[in-house]
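dumping the sequnces here before i forget
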Amino acid sequence: MAKHKTPLLDQLESGPWPSFVSDIKDEAETRHKNPNGVDYQIPVDVCDDLLGILELSYVEGETHWKHGGIVGVFGYGGGVIGRYCDQPQAFPGVAHFHTVRVNQPSGMYYTSDYLRSIMDVWDRRGSGLTNMHGSTGDLVLLGTQTAQLEEIFFELTHNLNTDLGGSGGNLRTPSCCLGESRCEFACYDTQEMCHTLTNDYQDELHRPAFPYKFKFKFDGCPNGCVAAIARSDFSVIGTWRDKIRVDQKAVAAYVGGELAPNAGAYAGRDWGKFDIVAEIVNRCPSGCFQFEGGKVVINDKECVRCMHCINVMPRALRIGNDRGASILLGAKAPILDGPQMSSLLVPFISAEAPYDEVKEVIENIWDWWMEEGKNRERVGETMKRMGFQKLLEVTKRKPDPRNVWEPRHNPYIFWKEEDVTGGWTRDIDAYRKKHQR
Amino acid sequence: MAFVSSGYNPAKPMENRITDIGPRYYGDFMPPVIVKNKGKWMWHEILEPGVLMHKAESGDEVYTVRCGAARLMSVTHIREICAIADKFCGGHLRFTTRNNVEFMVTTKADALALKKYLNDQKFAGGSYKFPVGGTGAGVTNIVHTQGWVHCHTPATDASGTVKATMDVVFEEFVNMRLPAPVRISMACCLNMCGAVHCSDIAILGIHRKPPIIDHEVLDSMCEVPLAVAACPTGAVRPTKIEYKGKTVNTVAIKNERCMFCGNCYTMCPSLPLSDKEGDGIALLVGGKLSNRMTKPKFSKVVVAFIPNEPPRWPSMTKVVKKILDTYAADARKYERLGDWAARIGWERFFEKTGLEFTEHLIDDFRDPAYYTWRQTTQFKF
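..and the predicted 3d for all of it:
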């Protein structure tokens, strides 16, 4: 028997898409029956009360979670989000409902044993509800009480050999696409770079010292499956600078219809026979792809590596061999100054361990941003406020036409005194000798 | 409910403390076929919706079965996922960036058996537990935020709007018949912890009433200068007023300057915004972040406000469906939603979708606004 009536939420149990309401209801019931004899450390009816308070929000159209709350584990300034409900008398099970962010393994592969061991901790010490995964990438444990935080942290670090993720003004939990582990388009080992930098920057991740949040994301190729260019302050996107590898026999098989184009990704509709000219030659953004005499001819020097031709004919075309990554900086959601995507800072950089070149770029940016960034100013906003030139200066990079779409539209150049012959100090009397008032 | 100690000693928090060890090494969790062939994959193929095959230089094949999931899931549900991984996949599994679950096997027969098994599992309420799909030119799972389940600033719910939307577009999750992939994202307020600003279709919670000022406690709960500095339009200023017989330090708000971003509330809990009539949803479309053919694009606001209609948000899902159907019928192969709208022109987008173009859709926020106005005589009648 459900503790609270939830007629609105109940309507979300039907329909084909997996119902979170059904899942929470099942969990509420499981906690009451307790078939595994779990010694629950927070109220047994936490799931009931979550449904109850959510139903109240569905009726009233307003949230019932209070603002913030400073809780955490000793010595860390992130990884736990404090949360309290504003109706604790009616819903005591969720009076405290803190979130714990657990740093996910790169590429989000798990063994069932490891995942179950986290679930055992969470069953006993939390709500039994999770997010798989949070927007930034963490495995999110959703809802526990203050007294459990140190206990959970102790068990995570001592028994499960893992750690918390980031929150607040610090390095947020880095994340990556699955990269070379299962993708032929990956231009570098995204998992290894993500894992290495996450470990190298543990202090920045756990102890907030930044003006605001700072996110790393690692995409293996310009297809961008982990959304680095839109969702990370520091976006590393795989690329290559030599030739696309072409297998002309496989090209012929695509053209002849023996191989399905797009790896079958468009197979649900009859788009007609594959037409290499209409579908690739005419769609190539730099016009570098030609089909002549039954063969593909690519002017690789003009290629902008958009991935389209490779996506369409993955068995005939493969990424080049001289691989590395581009670094772009400054993406953020609209708060406050409007949305930003990352802007190209480093066109090509080695993406091989131990990543010293990449780390030098990161640390130069951090040194500058920690000095100049205002409270709650993302690095993308600092860039806008202080100019791209400043970014080049602090990262010790030469200006490159690849940094911009096009040169500036106005002539209001902030010349420096040392740029100008003779400097800026002039004598008005000497001037007036030549020019009467 | 006796307290069970983990071994942590509150009297000596530093005793045996382990910190800064980072996440577990990813290599310990990958299936053997992945470990063996990492970096040596040659090509892939989507055999049918939700089933991928990757071929390695060694000749090895890995078959991946992808299924949708609610991002909010219970330990019992996760244990069920683990049991499936044990039964079919040697105890390995992974999650995708867009909240799907992937199971990997090494033969096609196993993959198809697994697909059937997954599609057979249902919740008591009737919904699929593990619907297989989310590949290729279709709609995959929605990335989203917390909403009324766990957040203090939302203007709508996240899990509910996602469930309602995915139910309506479900056929596109299990098919690959759209002109290109369509990425739907959901963020429940303008903070956008879900960063939906580059999505084909973005569902965004918005507020429309300025903050209520809790004068009685504001000065003790907030740093007034921080609340003032938080406002991007300078609408918040410090002031002293007589309140319930006492002189209190507080803030005043120029309502006509408020853009309802909620940043002041983030800095000051005494300035809540949420309101049943004020809050609702804006829809943005035409963003992308892939570099394929065209540059990454921001999403554009095409519906300024739709009221919250829990539990199923029918007005919102109807518009999403209408946009998706119009795009599906009209776009050329490979055209993302934003590429299609750019080619036909946004005047045609509104004509074809039947959406009303209102003054709210013309940008008036700072410099970027100018670059969205039309500086040409090229337009369509």
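The mean pLDDT of chain A is 97.
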